[in-house]
TrEMBL record:
This is 5-aminolevulinate synthase. It comes from Acetobacter garciniae. Keywords: Acyltransferase, Heme biosynthesis, Pyridoxal phosphate, Transferase. It holds the Pfam family Aminotran_1_2. GO terms for molecular function: 5-aminolevulinate synthase activity; pyridoxal phosphate binding. One of its GO terms (biological process) is protoporphyrinogen IX biosynthetic process.
Length: 420
């Protein structure tokens, strides 16, 4: 019985086989080399070995929905924080101490959502994963009711709490949720985990109705507002603020990387819940804190977005204008109640091909969204027009989409058998 020498570990073969399968299914993901130009956003620069001089590309898939990442005041706040505090945080907040910037930003986020306290995490993914896992392992008998389309970070946190029970309810189906809540033991600790804006379909949950069910069946509510903060509500507090129900939600989670254009995640809740998670969540305790430049920039961005409603108005004017142009050109899109504009394709390879041709032939970049991000057969381009997209940019994109979708037989008149 000796060691096997010079043998190739089977994991190498597994990787090769899995990647071959992903390529065959048209799901292999290539990074597109694009450099953002702060002064020209949403114009980026594309540089490839076969394109030494580069070229301009208009990007339609950024999650920096308001373009706050390129606002001069936000950039200057980041620079000032580096000069004052250095490039990094120097460690976790337990080890290296907490800067005033971190405390100010947590207080700002708590104020935005009308909660007693807030807690910063290194990303929105980590804030969901760490918070949900910690909550659902805190007491025996937890039952988590999770919307079927919840984000991967929420699913990771829920699955990580192995001793808890997970009940999946159909997406935005209040009747299904109530049936499953009613069937659960009355004395079991319960949590309902859901989102406000679902980023791939662009639809929204009925937060007030879910909170009403939570009260009826004694459940805690955990709301992901990642794709809504900054964009909805009088101050950008999300859909819960817009609908006047933020006070009914126990825990509101969000990001600083989308509507606020910087980086990082956070949760807000009652002071006791925040202190408990600060003291017990490994995803917070054992991770180096956000760099001061990130926190300083985020703090400036949040304050500006809260005070300047015209940014939200500009976003939705652009979204509505883009939809009107798509409709006038006969380009199919999914109408949503949010700022997200999906272009349905329905095939992974076709979706990638259209995205590639948009970039190579028209200088337009739109991310192809394929499985496992969305179910097979529902592949789409996901467009997020923003305040910096001009009418000329929109016209160019609409013409490019019409040309390519027609070439693929995906225009409405082709699908109904009418002449192109």
């Amino acid at each position: 019985m000796g060691a096997i020498k010079n043998a190739r570990h089977p994991f190498y073969d597994h990787c090769d086989e899995a990647l071959d399968r992903i390529r065959h299914e048209g799901r292999y993901r290539n990074f597109t080399p694009l450099a953002r130009h702060a002064e020209r956003f949403p114009v980026y620069g594309e540089e490839r070995p076969d394109m030494p001089d580069g070229r301009d590309v208009v990007v339609w898939s950024t999650n920096d929905y308001l373009g706050m990442g390129v606002v001069p005041e936000v950039q200057e706040a980041a620079i000032a924080a580096v000069r004052d505090h250095g490039a990094g945080a120097g460690g976790t907040r337990n080890i290296a101490g907490t800067s005033p910037l971190h405390n100010e930003l947590e207080a700002e986020m708590a104020s935005l959502h009308g909660k007693e306290a807030g807690l910063l995490f290194v990303s929105g993914y980590v804030s969901n994963q760490a918070s949900l896992q910690t909550i659902l392992t805190s007491m025996p008998g937890w039952i988590c009711f999770s919307d079927r389309l919840n984000h991967a970070s929420m699913i990771a946190g829920i699955k990580g709490a192995r001793a808890s029970q997970t009940v999946i309810f159909e997406h935005n189906d209040l009747e299904d949720l109530e049936r499953k809540l009613a069937a659960a033991p009355a004395d079991a600790p319960k949590l309902i985990a859901f989102e406000s804006v679902y980023s791939m379909d662009g639809d929204m949950s009925d937060i007030g109705a879910i909170c009403a069910l939570a009260r009826k069946y004694g459940a805690l509510t955990y709301l992901d507002e990642v794709h809504a903060v900054g964009l909805y509500g009088a101050e950008g507090g999300g859909v819960s603020q817009r609908d006047g129900v933020a006070d009914q939600v126990d825990i509101i989670e969000g990001t600083l990387a989308k509507g606020f254009g910087v980086h990082g995640g956070y949760i807000t809740a009652a002071a006791g819940i925040i202190d408990f998670l600060r003291s017990t969540a490994s995803g917070f305790i054992f991770t180096t804190a956000l760099p001061p430049c990130v926190v300083g920039a985020a703090l400036q961005s949040v304050r500006m977005v809260r005070a300047e409603n015209w940014r939200r108005e500009a976003l939705f004017e652009r979204v509505n204008t883009f939809r009107q142009r798509l409709r006038a050109a006969g380009v199919p899109f999914t109408m949503t109640p949010s700022h997200i504009v999906p272009i349905p394709v329905g095939d992974a390879e076709c979706c990638k091909r259209i995205s590639r041709r948009l970039l190579n032939e028209f200088g337009q970049y739109a991310t192809p969204i394929n499985y496992p991000t969305v179910p097979e057969g529902t592949e789409r381009l996901r467009l997020t027009p923003g305040p910096f997209h001009t009418d000329e940019m929109m016209d160019d994109m609409v013409r490019a989409l019409a040309t390519l979708l027609r070439a693929e037989g995906l225009m409405p008149e082709q699908r109904t058998g009418q002449a192109a």
